[in-house]
Design brief:
The chain is of the alpha+beta class. It has two domains: about 35 residues; about 170 residues. It is built from three helices and nine strands, in the order H-E-E-E-E-E-H-E-E-E-E-H. The strands form two sheets. A seven-stranded antiparallel β-sheet has the order 3-4-5-9-8-7-6, with helices on both faces. It has a two-stranded antiparallel sheet with strand order 1-2. A hairpin with a 4-residue loop joins strand 4 and strand 5. The termini are far apart. About 5% of the residues have low confidence.
Length: about 230
Amino acid sequence: MRQVLSQFLRVKAKRVSVITAMLLMVGGYHIFVSCQSDDPVARPYAYARAILPAVQPAQYRGNCLPVTFDYNAAAKPVCVNPSELPHNSSKSSLNDPQWLNLSYPALGAQWHLSYHPIAGVRYQDRRQVERRDALAVLMAETQRMTFKHTLKATAIEEEIISYPEHKVYGTLYVVGGDAASQTQFYVTDSVKHYLRGSLYFEVSPNSDSLQPYSAYLLKDMRRILATLRW
């Protein structure tokens, strides 16, 4: 009897050992699988957080352009000699020396401003434009400069500028996409004065990464246009 019981216990112990080993194998397999890393997933591109200068109110009362306006002192007004301009710059006015850059060193950006007295407009071949046609010639040139960016633009939005109490009228163009100049404008009193402007960055255009800076500079320009006086 004892011999039978002893044999039974030995068989039972072997079965328990086999079951335990099987459980350990299955558990080890699941642990191994769960420890395996998932397939790599591409992460979306991200851009560094934009650090924008604090707005510091200032007044432009310089001699580069015969106008006055309020602007952000984060920009540095720089008079530009026409001889320093690129050869492809538009020069439709007799008074080419009246150019001004508002340079933002911290942002690597510039507003290029040019003032054109309507009475002194000439064609590029230097022929005098008749007074009644001068404003139309200047506006056509501004539109040409704006819409030459349509190859890179995804959209061009027009914003009407109108301050009748100061005789300031015009259009602001906001160019979407990776255009070289994402904002341009012109304003005039329709009789004597015409001011044109365009925004440029010192890096290759990328609308996504430049968006915070473009918005900041566009707000600055709206302040300038609202306070512009001839």
